[in-house]
Design brief:
Layout: E1 2-6, H1 11-23, E2 25-26, E3 29-30, E4 33-38, E5 50-55, H2 61-67, E6 74-77, H3 83-88, H4 90-111, E7 116-122, H5 145-162, E8 167-173, E9 175-176, H6 190-199, E10 204-206, E11 213-217, H7 219-231, H8 234-237, E12 242-244, E13 248-251, H9 252-263, E14 271-273, H10 277-283, H11 293-297, H12 306-316
Parallel strand pairs: 1-4, 1-6, 4-5, 6-7, 7-8, 8-12, 9-11, 10-14
Antiparallel strand pairs: 2-3, 11-13
Bound molecules: nicotinamide-adenine-dinucleotide (NAD).
The site of nicotinamide-adenine-dinucleotide (NAD) has 29 residues, from helix 1, helix 4, strand 7 and strand 9.
Amino acid sequence: MNILIIGGGGVVGQKLAQTLAKSGTLNGKAISKITLADINNPPSIEAPFDIECQVCDIADPASVQKTIHKDTDVIYLLAAIVSAHAEEDFELGMNINLFGTYNVLERCRALRTKPVVVFSSSIAIYGGEIPDPLGDHTYPNPQTSYGGQKAMGEILINDYSRKGFIDGRAFRLPTISVRPGKPNRAASSFMSSILREPLNGQEAICPVDPDFLHYYLSPRKCVENLIKGAELTAESLGMNRVMQMPGRTWSIGQMIDAMTTVAGSEPAKLIKWDSQPEIKRIVLGWKFDIHAERATSLGLSADASFEDNIRYYIEDDQPTSV
Ligand SMILES: NC(=O)c1ccc[n+]([C@@H]2O[C@H](COP(=O)([O-])OP(=O)(O)OC[C@H]3O[C@@H](n4cnc5c(N)ncnc54)[C@H](O)[C@@H]3O)[C@@H](O)[C@H]2O)c1
C-alpha cells in the first residue's frame, strides 16, 4: 500500500502519517511507503517502511505531476490555506484550495489508476440562512471564500468519483481542538490557543464570549476517522461521497471547565477576554448544530467528552518542558 499525504507537513498530515506508521497497515494491507508532500519541505517521521518527503505545490500542475504516480494507492488531500488567510487573499485561496484540488484530481484522471482520494472539507461550507440542524444533506451555503472553495472541492470529488476517475470521499472536518503548535491564520485559531497556551503556562486571548458554541473534534479522533474514511468501501459510499465527520458541540465555557477538571484551576487564569469584531464576524456566521449520522453509521466517531480532547493534547502534544 503506497500512501501519499498532500499537506503532509501540516498538523493533521503529520499526525496521520505518525499514526499510520505505528499501525503499519491500512485496510488490512501492509503499508510499503508513505510520501509526505507539502509546499514547505515536510519533516520526516519514524516508520518501519519507506518515508519520502517532497516539496509539492498543488497550485502548479507540473509539481502535482511529479508527486502523484501510477503506484499511488491512496491520496490524502489535506493541503489548503485556511479560512482567514483565504479570506484575506482571494486569489491565493482560489489557486490552492480550488484549482490545487482540481490539479490533483486531473492528475488522477490522466493516470487512469483510480486511487482512493480522501479530501478534507470543512464545516465552513455551512452558513447563512439555512435552518438547523445541519448535516450530510444540508445545502452548502458558505459565508467565506474558504468555505466556498471547500464546497466546490466536494462537488469535484463527487463528480470525479461518479466518472470513475477516482474512488473519492470527502469529510467535513469539525474544528480541530486542541490543535498543537502555533496559532495559525484560521479564524478558528483561538479555539485551540485559549487552551493550548494556558496548558503550556502562557497567556492567550479569547475574542468571543464564554457562551459561544462551536463543533469540535480532537486531532487524535480526526486522524482515526480519516483512516476509517479511507477504508470505507466504494459500495458503502454509493453516489454521494461527501459527509459530515462526527464532532460535538461545546461552548467556550464548557471547554475551559474541561481544562480545569483535567489540569487544575491555574491555566484558565491565563485567558484574557478581548472582543475582536473581525474574528467574530467570521465565526458567528458558522453553524454549530451539526449532526454526522451517515459517518457515524459507517463507524466514524466523535470524542466522548471535551476532557478527552484536553487529555489527548497533554499526552500527544504538550511540550515536555511544561
Ligand atoms: N484544523 C482544523 O480545524 C480544520 C477544520 C476543517 C478542515 N480542515 C482542513 O483539514 C486540512 C488539514 O488541516 P491542518 O489543520 O492540518 O492544516 P495545516 O495548515 O496545518 O496543514 C495544511 C498544509 O497544507 C500545506 N499547503 C498549503 N498550500 C499548499 C500548496 N499549494 N501545495 C501543497 N501544500 C500546501 C501547508 O504548508 C500545510 O502544511 C486542511 O485542508 C484544512 O482546510 C482543518
